[in-house]
Amino acid sequence: MSGSLRILFIAGSTRTGSFNAQLAERAAHTAEQRGDVTVTLINLADYDMPLYNGDLEKEKGLPEAAKKLKQQFRTHHGFCLASPEYNSTISPLLINALHWISRPETQDEPGLVAFKGKVAGLLAASPGGFGGMRGLVPLRMMLGNIGVHVIPTQLAVPQANNAFDESGAFKEESWQQRLEVLVDELVATAEVVGTAEG
User: Fold this and answer.
1) Given this model, what pLDDT does residue 198 score?
2) Cα separation, 190 vs 184, whole angstroms
3) Contact indicator for 136, 23 with CB cutoff of 8 Å
4) Sequence-ordered alpha helix ranges (H) in the chain
5) Contact at 8 Å (CB) between 139 and 10?
6) pLDDT, tens digit, for every residue of 78-87?
């Protein structure tokens, strides 16, 4: 069973065996288990985009992959990002995707339509002791500044190389419980303030 509320799940890494991809899959599965949410899990590898460049945008407009990804954001009420930490900040892959989809496709398009009125939940996983939480600080700030309602609860999983079993589930139930709290808050907030195109 799925509901009319639509939530998008994305990992900010496409690396084989990515801990954040595992975390995004676990979050999507957790949301699906509720039975009242339509869940879309996407892989940024399917949305190949060049490095954002204003001259390139002026010459050719948005890449087709950026248009398709932007449409995914527009048609969902909220999104959940599992973001790896690169040198204490956002991964180049994720920030580049977010920059591209922030750009208008036409002159009369309202600003930041992929983001304004959306609700976001933030996750991170890392082999290190902080779980990637330092990278969530600039991500939270950026999203808040472009009109996204970022829920207060976030999840950062340390020692991620030992956190998941072979099926992709958490080895420790306490992590799954924390994830369920985040997903519940994301869904509840999106039900109240989340917007989406039909």
Assistant:
1) 78
2) 10
3) no
4) 19-34, 54-60, 64-74, 92-101, 133-145, 173-193
5) no
6) 999 999 999 9
Q: Kindly report the CA angle at 14 between 166 and 63, in degrees rounded to 5?
A: 150
The DSSP call for residue 62 is S
- Is the Cβ–Cβ distance between 71 and 5 less than 8 Å? no
Q: Which fold has domain 5-193?
A: Rossmann fold (3.40.50)
In the numeric block, which tokens belong to residue 31?
Answer: 């949301």
SS3 93: helix
Return averaged pLDDT per consecutive 10 residues of the chain, 198 residues in all. 84 97 98 96 98 97 98 98 96 98 94 96 97 97 98 98 96 98 98 93
The tokens for 90 are 């956002």
Q: Which residue type is seen at 195?
A: T
Domains of the chain, by residue range, sit at 5-193
Residue 197: the pLDDT is: 92
CA–CA dist 73, 76 (Å, integer): 5
